[in-house]
Write a structure and sequence with these properties.
Blueprint: H1 3-36, H2 40-65, H3 67-77, H4 80-108, H5 119-134, H6 136-151, H7 156-178, H8 188-212, H9 217-221, H10 230-262, H11 266-302, H12 306-333, H13 346-361, H14 363-378, H15 383-407, H16 412-445
């Protein structure tokens, strides 16, 4: 396959995942826009609560990611019985993990007062965090079925389901936040309730697709509800836990950054929420390309076609670089206009404009590192990438952010300089890792 063929194949897998992820982020953006109309404090409370919640969310997403390379490799081997076992055990592990994470969020709420945030921000954040925490259980049920389907190359159905649930979420936001159609205004809590309801609907639709669609008939014929295998459960955990930590190290870096920015004041925290929500939109597109890299690499690895595997992944890197360069231009050139979509506060808009410049600068690094993780995930290489993310974000990125933000007095933008450094280091090391491993596989076949 030449570059054009790889590009078409990657794009056919990636664009439904991109739209799914963008749909989720668009709902978060819509949440922020609607909550922003309530004032600084609710928007800052949403930022604070989400900075806590997202750590648990990505732990769950990371666990579900284990299913995709396992399914892709089994599909490459044409092993239907193995696929059936992967679906069964993946769904079990993710459901139990969702219950565990929701319980951890509920038990951790008493500690929110120790983050040194404004008292009103904490008061508003507590009930919102409780209800979005409960949404993790149906969300991980959805993720288990989605990642399995994506591992087989079926990415469009998840896109349709995500878009439908996102439209439901936006509608419920409007009704519950502002009190429409006879409902009392619920403010920030209404946004959380809308999230829970829409994620329950999302889980029901995705489970129904995997159960009833004819694509999975052969897999269900091999399905056995009675027997569970501890080795397969361990295989899920062996892949899923390191992936959880990879995402935790990255996302918790941004969460800690949000907490540190909260020490500076409500204006800075609200500006951070605006800038990070926009950066999340471009990241989700790169995440779609990363998913395509996982699927292509895993499938070709199962077929032992190492040259095609390497070329497919390198094409994904190129795709991410091109898109993220365009996103960088948008953020930098539109920095003074884009924040106006969220809030009518000149102080917040001015601060957000500065942060969007840095967001533009780290777009390329963000795209390369997420595709690197996806390609390595397809090879079931998870331990070394986990160490790389730990070093890049926690040993380098956050300390530099604190140094620039507080010691040198650069403020919120100084903390974002640290984020830029961490992402750049991760991008370089992860690409080198994939390049070396894929070359070794090629040489082993010679």
């Amino acid at each position: 396959m030449d570059f054009k063929q790889h590009f078409k194949k990657n794009l056919s897998l990636a664009y439904p995942v991109m739209i799914s992820h963008l749909g989720q982020v668009s709902v978060q953006i819509a949440d922020n826009m609607m909550v922003g109309r309530l004032g600084r404090e609710p928007l800052a409370a949403a930022s604070f609560a989400n900075s806590i919640f997202v750590v648990f969310l990505v732990m769950g997403i990371g666990m579900s990611y284990a299913i995709t390379p396992m399914a892709a490799q089994a599909d490459g081997e044409k092993n239907i019985s193995k696929l059936s076992d992967i679906l069964k055990h993946g769904f079990l592990v993710n459901t139990l993990y969702g219950i565990l994470l929701a319980a951890c969020i509920f038990l951790s709420q008493n500690g929110l007062h120790y983050f040194n945030q404004p008292e009103m921000v904490v008061t508003l954040a507590l009930p919102y965090l409780s209800i979005v925490g409960a949404s993790l259980i149906p969300f991980l049920m959805y993720q288990a079925c989605r990642q399995f389907a994506e591992g087989l190359g079926y990415t469009r159905s998840a896109m349709y389901i995500t878009v439908a649930s996102n439209l439901l979420n936006v509608l419920l936001n409007y009704i519950l936040i502002f009190g429409k159609l006879g409902f009392a205004p619920m403010g920030l809590f209404g946004a959380g309730l809308a999230t829970l309801i829409s994620r329950i609907a999302m889980a029901i639709m995705m489970i129904a697709f995997v159960y009833f669609d004819k694509k999975f008939i052969a897999i269900w014929q091999k399905f056995n509800f009675d027997r569970f295998s501890w080795p397969l459960i361990k295989a899920n955990l062996r892949l899923g836990l390191p992936m959880s930590f990879q995402l935790i190290f990255e996302v918790s870096t941004f969460s800690v950054a949000a907490v540190m920015i909260g020490w500076m004041g409500t204006i800075e925290l609200a500006a951070h929420q605006i800038a990070i929500s926009m950066a999340s939109a471009s990241y989700m597109v790169a995440l779609g390309i990363s998913a395509a890299a996982t699927i292509r690499v895993g499938n070709q690895l199962g077929q032992r076609n190492y040259q095609t595997m390497r070329n497919a992944a390198l094409t994904c890197f190129v795709m991410a670089i091109v898109f993220m360069a365009l996103a960088a231009l948008l953020f930098i050139l539109g920095r003074n206009v884009l924040p106006m979509l969220y809030i009518d506060d000149k102080a917040v808009i001015g601060q957000a404009a500065l942060l969007l410049i840095v967001a533009g600068l780290f777009q390329l690094s963000d795209g390369i590192q997420v595709v690197g993780l996806g390609a390595l995930r397809g090879m079931s290489d998870v331990k070394v990438p986990t160490v790389i993310t730990l070093i890049a974000y926690w040993a380098i990125g956050l300390p530099l952010g604190y140094l620039f933000g507080f010691t040198l007095g650069f403020g919120a933008i100084g903390i974002w300089y640290g984020l830029l450094a961490g992402l750049s280091i991760a991008a370089v090391l992860l690409f080198i890792r994939f390049n070396n491993l894929s070359k070794k596989l090629l040489l082993s076949k010679v």
